Amino acid sequence: MPEGAAKKVEIFFILLIAAWLDIAMKVTIWKDAACIYYIAEEGLSILENAGALGLPILDKLKNAIEALKNGK
Question: Which of 9, 22, 57, 67 has its CA 20 to 30 A from that of 49?
Answer without folding.
Answer: 9
